[in-house]
Amino acid sequence: MQEQVKLFHHNTLASLMSGLYEGTIEIGDLLKNGSFGIGTLAGVDGELIVLDGNAYIAKGNRTVRLVSADEKAPYAAVTTPHVTIQQKFDRTISDQTLLEEIEKKLLSRNLFHSVKVHGLFNKMHVRMSPGAKEGEQFVDVAARQPEYTEENISGTIVGYWTPELFHGMSVAGFHLHFISDDRQFGGHIMDFTMANGNLELGKIDQVIQNFPVEAERFLEADLDLEKLRGDIEKAE
Ligand SMILES: [Zn+2]
């Protein structure tokens, strides 16, 4: 049997959305579980991008830096992708068209997929979580997120496609971050136009849902699922 591709998922988006921002996994431990992924850092201070085994944080002040092994994340998802489908795009396309094309290529809408697109972008519009106090509702944090746009920038889209069933654990559909080739610009993707690029789509065989078992506030939290699912739609 071919080796199973595992998605290591620390904590859930629902607990993040309910204001549990305390860092609960060290980046060094996270990277032992995968070389590619997304998340945030303690205090939802920025957008985490894991690419080629390195973790970067894109912060609200428009800087990107490498994250050290002892920094902590409240939420992250990593895998070591196995490319199932590859496709080159050599015409200018909108984010909407590209995402539709990717959705057509999914092996199944019931499977998680890793999504990686390296390309040249005429425009890349991102935002960053600006950091928040523990307990502040994420929808309120989301309302004051800085946004930036770069033009003619080369870089990589890093993220996942999640089946509807797992909305709450993660965000259903696409959750995509970006990092430039020079590692100077990145964030959570809002929209873009791509001049050309190469898609690598990877099927995920297994999801490991890891919990912050020592986080007192998580253990005692009363998660209002209905509200959280709505909040995730609004904020993500
Ligand atoms: Zn994000």
pLDDT under 50 segments (min length 5)? none
According to CATH, what is the topology?
60s Ribosomal Protein L30, Chain: A
Biggest pleated-sheet summary: 7 strands, mixed
- Element-by-element helix/strand order: EHEHEEEEEEEEHEHEEEEHH
Number of helices: 6
**Heterogens:** zinc ion
Strand order of the largest sheet: 6-5-4-3-8-1-15
Family: Belongs to the alpha-acetolactate decarboxylase family.
EC number: 4.1.1.5
Protein name: Alpha-acetolactate decarboxylase
Keywords: Acetoin biosynthesis, Decarboxylase, Lyase
Task: Please provide a written account of the structure.
With 236 residues, this protein is α+β, with helices and mostly antiparallel strands. The protein has one domain (6-235): Hypothetical protein, similar to alpha- acetolactate decarboxylase, domain 2 (60s Ribosomal Protein L30, Chain: A, 2-Layer Sandwich), CATH 3.30.1330. It contains six helices and 15 strands. The chain has helices spanning 13-17, 27-31, 95-105, 138-142, 216-220, 225-235; strands spanning 6-10, 25-26, 36-40, 47-51, 54-58, 64-66, 72-73, 75-79, 85-89, 93-94, 113-127, 147-162, 173-180, 186-203, 206-210. The strands form three sheets. The protein has a seven-stranded mixed beta sheet. Strands 9, 10, 11, 12, 13 and 14 form a six-stranded antiparallel beta sheet that branches. Strand 13 and strand 14 form a beta hairpin. The longest helix has 11 residues, at 95-105. The site of zinc ion has 5 residues, from strand 13. GO terms for molecular function: acetolactate decarboxylase activity. Its EC number is 4.1.1.5. Belongs to the alpha-acetolactate decarboxylase family.
